[in-house]
Amino acid sequence: MLRIDYLAVPGLPPLSFEVAASECLAVEGPSGSGKTRLLRAIADLDPAQGYVFLEGIERHETAAPHWRRRVRYAAAEPAWWAATARAHFPLTAKLERLMAALALAPALLDRPLAELSTGERQRFGLIRAMADEPQVLLLDEPTSALDAQTGALAEELIKFQVLAGRIVILVSHDAAQIARLAHARLLLAGGDGEDRAQSFAA
After folding, report:
1. 133: closest CA among 161, 109, 173?
2. Cβ atoms within 10 A of the Cβ of 50, count?
3. With 157 labelled, which of 64, 74, 75, 164 sits at a CA distance of 20 to 30 A?
């Protein structure tokens, strides 16, 4: 269980909600409403007052690197620290399966990341987020750069993560995708000086 208690993300009222294992929560709202800020706060990448518990352990009760291994944020355009994708992954059968699931050719591992398409980098970012099986996946527009076919492959992989017992929080502007993946929805709305949040079943 991931439990959020009075998490104070800049620009939003204090938020409280829960997401159980094997559930996907979709976070919706207009651009600038705080969706990415919320995910980054849950991952302890940005400071925020309030509490985030995973299986009863609060984020500040454990070292930040350990928390981020359990609670993984995946940006729409991930950052990289080496020239090729191969340097970011151990070569394992699991990596090969994940690449095959997202229709990534093995040769792309050694191609400079700067030469890959945005969609190829986005798929490698999803693999990097999932490869070591974190308990929580915070996915920020995970298919925004993908065409319909590869987007469908990514959705199947996300569904598998949920079926495997992981907690998924998904930011998406695609209402149809939310209908396919989410068990519940959290709406962030603002712009009139009174930011608010509303949660409801999908």
Report:
1. 161
2. 15
3. 64
pTM: 0.93
- The separation between the first and the last C-alpha atoms of the chain, rounded to the nearest angstrom, is 19
CATH number for the domain spanning 97: value is: 3.40.50.300
Rg of the chain on CA atoms, in Å: 17
| 42/176 Cα distance (integer angstroms) | 25
Question: By the 8 A CB rule, do 72 and 42 touch?
Answer: no
Collapsing DSSP to helix, strand or coil, 16 comes out as strand
Task: Print the domain residue range for 179.
Answer: 2-201
Cα separation values, 58 from 17, 143, 189, Å: 14, 30, 27
> Residues 92, 71: contact at Cβ < 8 Å?
no
Return d(Cα 201, Cα 50) in angstroms, integer: 24
| Number of domains the chain contains | 1
